Amino acid sequence: MLNKKIEDITNRIILRSELKRKLYLSQMLSQFNKEFSRAHLNCGNLAHAAAGSESKDKAALEKNIVPNLAIITAYNDMLSAHKTFEHYPENIRKFASQYNAVAQVAGAVPAMCDGVTQGQAGMELSLFSRDVISLSTAIGLSHNMFDGVLCLGICDKIVPGLLIGALKFGHLPTAFVPGGPMQSGISNEEKSKIRQDFAEGKIDRAALLKGESDSYHSPGTCTFYGTANSNQMLMEVMGLQLPGSSFVNPNTRLRELLNEEVVKIIAQTAIKKSFDATLCNLINEKTIVNGIIGLLATGGSTNHTIHLIAIAKAAGILINWDDFSELSEIIPLLTKVYPNGVADVNHFHAAGGMGFVINTLLENGLLHKDVNTILGFGLDRYTKESKIKENKLVWEEGQKKSLNETIIRGVSDPFQAISGIRMMKGNIGRAVMKTSAVESNHMIIEAEAIVFDEQEDLIKAFKNNELNKDFIAVFPFQGPKQNGMPELHQLTPTLTILQKRGFKVGLITDGRMSGASGKVPAAIHVVPEARDGGMISKIQTGDVIVLNAKTGELNCLDHQIINRLARTKDNSNVFGLGRELFFNMRALVSSSEEGASFL
Question: Exposed/middle/buried for 381, CB within 10 Å: 0-12, 13-18, 19+?
Answer without folding.
Answer: middle
